[in-house]
Amino acid sequence: MAEQKRIxxxxxxxxxxxxxxxxxxxxxxxxxxxxxxxxxxxxxxIGYVVVYPALPGLxxxxxxxxxxxxxxxxAETMEAExxxxxxxxxxxxxxxxxxxPAKPELMNAAVQGGAAAFRTHCVQCHGxxxxxxxxxPNLNDDDWLWGGDLKTLEYTITHxxxxxxxxxxxxxxxxxxxHDGILTAPQVQDTVSFVRVISGQEKQSASSRRGAALFEANxxxxxxxxxxxxxxxxxxxxxxGIWLYGGDRETLTQTINNSRRxxxxxxxxHLSPTTxxxxxxxxxxxxxxxxxxxxAPVETAQAEGGAAPAAAPAN
Amino acid sequence: xxxxxxxTDSPLGVYQKRKAVFPKQVDGPFRRFKWLVMAVTxxxxxxxxxxxxxxxxxxxxxxxxxxxxxxxxFMFSIEIWPHEFYYVAGLLIMAGVGLFLVTSAVGRAWxxxxxxxxxxxxxxxxxxRFLDGDRNAQIRLDRAPWTASKVWKRMRKWxxxxxxxxxxxxxxxxxxxxxxxxxxxxxTGQAPFVAYGxxxxxxxxxxxxxxxxxxxxxxxxxxxxxxxxxxTDEKSLIVTYKHWRGEPRSHGKKRAASDxxxxxxxxDCLQCVQVCPTGIDIREGPQIGCITCALCIDACDKVMDxxxxxxxxxxxxxxxxxxxxxxxxxxxxxxxxxxxxxxxxYFGLWCAIGxxxxxxxxxxxxxxxxxxxxxxxxxxxxxxxxxxxxxLIKLRNMENRPREMTIALEGLPGARxxxxxxxxxxAARSITVEVPADxxxxxxxxxVAPAAGSAREDxxxxxxxxxxxxxxxxxxxxxxxxxxxx
Lengths: 315, 486
Description:
The complex is a heterodimer. Helices cover 42% and strands 4% of the residues of chain A. Chain A has helices at residues 32-51, 70-94, 104-121, 123-126, 150-159, 185-198, 206-218, 220-223, 249-258, 273-285, and strands spanning 7-8, 13-20, 23-26. In chain A, strand 2 (13-20) and strand 3 form a beta hairpin. By secondary structure, chain A is mainly α. Chain B is of the alpha+beta class. In chain B, the strands form four sheets. In chain B, strands 6, 7, 8, 10 and 12 form a five-stranded antiparallel beta sheet that branches. Chain B has a four-stranded antiparallel beta sheet with strand order 11-9-13-14, with no helix packed on it. A three-stranded antiparallel beta sheet of chain B has the order 1-2-3, with no helix packed on it. Chain B is elongated. At the A-B interface, loops of A face strand 7 of B.
């Protein structure tokens, strides 16, 4: 290896002195602007380390001379946002929910806030458009098991449905007629026939006529003599076009045999009362919400059957 | 040391230093026409924002206003909404086709007379001549050392240029806000930052482009000279030096009468070069630097008068006419040159767009309905088995008075609708609402229809202002039902 530097004739460039097998390395320095840019990045990097949190330690990174951190910046933004929203949130908090619609500004804010909370906590079961799915109620329609006015919605969200840890939860316990041996398999089929007749899916038959008597004896106590449901017990209207689990023979057979025990969490404790209020406002705004009934919690067409004085036990 | 130096230092350098141009004062019909165009265009530019136009209490009173904040464009009695932006697009297309038309007919007339770069450069050059004297004085001053007198003269010139530039940049912002209000806010320091920023940027660009870059903009920065080559042909009127008449050149006025047969009319006085704002020699033939301002024609005609030769050695002429003239034939009248397929096609196109736009403008509706279907969920089955769809409906009232509008369903038998704020009991085939003046009203609307029907049934929302015979608009939509299998 020759260590002597020399000028390479064809290019006129100095060599660095390395030579291997007749191949020499030319000394082509970087452009000066490139070098200065490189030095500038080093200076910048040092400055960055001084100013911002950068070097990791055992208990955390260095703080930087201004104490700035992205987490701190986020906290600041959140705090400012909280302060911005505080007046309207406290106004919503002190306003009884049935009075919200009279204050459009509050109602609008509640619907917006409820929509945000819904996207976080409710879409998993009820879907992003609140249209539910099999076993999870569609919140856009006009069929409510427990009632669809603001106050009722707020109660349902607060206490949940069949929540074992909640004393005041919505609870309806339909017996598992087949499983518990209350009805025989043919009797269940007859009852299914009757339900499909009153919901307009089948014509009268001998089976359905036998089912009518079974329904009268076993089901009318909750679903009403005409099968129109009763909100006091969360008993669905069996004559309308909406089925939570399905209105075909197979599904109805399963339902009567085994009962359905859908559970919704009680959001009290997880969400603030204000958030729950806003959620109720949002759900109400989805198009299926009902007006707050004047004194008696009885709805018009829905509860005609249920209005009959059926003093049945709650379960 | 490095190879970059080798390239820039070599005679094959890629960059040439600008040669200063000192155009000489000239007088003549084209110069006077240029003054006229300059006066008209600058007046339009500076005066337009200050024209008032009474539009009543619901709209601004400025005749021409681009109201970005409220997304409206006002032009005298015409008001353009954002969704009608195609009118502006149509105007831009007309401007483009118009430029093609003018170019194919009379060459780069836009460049020579009406282009803002030309107008402002011309204005700056006149200031320069007024303060520093004509061409020779300017050259002397340019070469003079930096004495106090030269510094003073430069400062004086730049100050006037800056003043004009400021007036230019400052006028632009008045097109975007109420001019008197903004003017007051501007001088009291209360105008928005964007007003000061725009004024500053436009002041500096005017100062630099009009004062220092001048012909560099026309030759190097502007794409139009490259494009215009596609617009002109042998029948376009362009500034032409008639070399068969001028060559060979004689030097000096004293052309021996006996030599008349030998020498052409050009006496190489260089007047055409000295008056040229881009510093070119038109005698070298058509070239990219020529903006066809025709000042060289004015200069040459004057010289031809002096040496008692016919005018028009440099002239507006078509290439075909030049050939005819060379052969000794009479030129074709200019009007026949202008009326040819290419110009007629451009003109026809231009008129067609204009007429179509005028027709659209004259018959356009001042109400509009835009329905946006809520597709999450696509449909909702109600307890009575009927199907409900939802729409967000936007009603535009583009007049300066509140109007009652009736939304109705067209098609979709058995369907009824209601506003979100109402209840289903109030459902009907039509809904009447009041839309405030010059506003868009948004309504969330539910439509309920019987379950029987196709999975996607076409219908339309119609809206009518006032009673029967009022303005109408419609928006075709589809009603969605569950598929049979469900």
